């Protein structure tokens, strides 16, 4: 009888280099910590240096390198181009400005398309080139949303951008599979983060959200980070082009 491999060893990221955007707070911060705790050397990208310093202090010693910069800027892409290699990318940038469909100004439309779609595309391009330089394949995890699979009032632009991200994920997965580069998305429901705090502070909106989630509550960043770790790890070696729903059952209805 064959012996099953150690299931926990399959989650080890020892010797791997990971890049996490939007790592200063929320899901990105939790993901950076999880990857570092699994043994990866993590490049954490955020605009605020104090956030990065706190993250590095909480992570295992020497595991987090902070890049204090704007991940939408050309200089960020140039810095990735200078890397000798890369194993994991967690694309965690995203903004949301909920408005009724007919009241969305073109400035809001352009801003959300730029951050949620254009920047994700461009960062993925240069990160994949870095993975090729490293010669070990890689894993790209797009932090998408349940809104990439359903529609919702006042979120036409957000839903549009996340549906685009899901399409990008699938197309990248098919094209890059022969090179051993896996591409997947994680699709959370409403999670308690600084981004969602103003929305969830509205009692009626929070009740609406919880009524749509069969598990009856919003999520925590600590419930999304393990999904990201799984998809980044060898435990997910046969998974690509998939969307992992972390949505409490919202999209199952």
TrEMBL record:
GO BP, one annotated term: glucose metabolic process
Sorted UniProt keywords: NADP
GO molecular function: carbonyl reductase (NADPH) activity; L-xylulose reductase (NADPH) activity
CDD domains (UniProt xref): SDR_c
SUPFAM superfamilies tied to this protein: NAD(P)-binding Rossmann-fold domains
Pfam annotation, one family: adh_short_C2
Domain of life: Bacteria
InterPro entries for this protein: L-xylulose/Carbonyl_redctase, NAD(P)-bd_dom_sf, Sc_DH/Rdtase_CS, SDR_fam
Record note on quaternary structure: Homotetramer.
Record-stated family: Belongs to the short-chain dehydrogenases/reductases (SDR) family.
Name the UniProt record assigns to this protein: 3-oxoacyl-ACP reductase
Protein source organism: Niveispirillum cyanobacteriorum
Lineage per the UniProt record: Bacteria, Pseudomonadati, Pseudomonadota, Alphaproteobacteria, Rhodospirillales
């Amino acid at each position: 009888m064959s012996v099953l491999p150690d299931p926990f060893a399959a989650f080890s990221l020892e010797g791997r280099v990971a890049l996490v955007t939007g790592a200063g707070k929320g899901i990105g911060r939790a993901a950076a910590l999880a990857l570092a705790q699994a043994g990866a050397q993590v490049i954490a990208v955020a605009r605020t240096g104090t956030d990065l310093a706190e993250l590095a202090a909480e992570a295992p010693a020497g595991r987090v390198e902070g890049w204090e910069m704007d991940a939408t800027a050309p200089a960020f892409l140039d810095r990735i181009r200078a890397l000798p290699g890369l194993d994991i990318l967690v694309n965690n940038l995203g903004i949301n400005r909920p408005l009724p469909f007919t009241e969305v100004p073109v400035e809001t439309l352009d801003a959300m398309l730029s951050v949620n779609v254009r920047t994700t595309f461009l960062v993925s391009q240069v990160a994949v080139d870095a993975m090729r330089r490293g010669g070990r394949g890689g894993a790209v995890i797009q932090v998408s949303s349940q809104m990439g699979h359903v529609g919702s009032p006042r979120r036409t632009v957000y839903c549009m951008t996340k549906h685009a991200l899901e399409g990008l994920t699938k197309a990248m997965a098919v094209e890059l599979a022969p090179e051993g580069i896996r591409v997947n998305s994680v699709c959370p429901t409403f999670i308690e983060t600084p981004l969602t705090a103003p929305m969830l502070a509205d009692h009626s909106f929070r009740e609406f959200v919880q009524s749509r989630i069969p598990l009856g509550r919003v999520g925590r960043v600590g419930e999304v980070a393990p999904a990201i770790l799984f998809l980044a790890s060898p435990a997910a070696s046969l998974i690509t082009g998939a969307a992992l729903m972390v949505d409490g059952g919202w999209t199952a209805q």
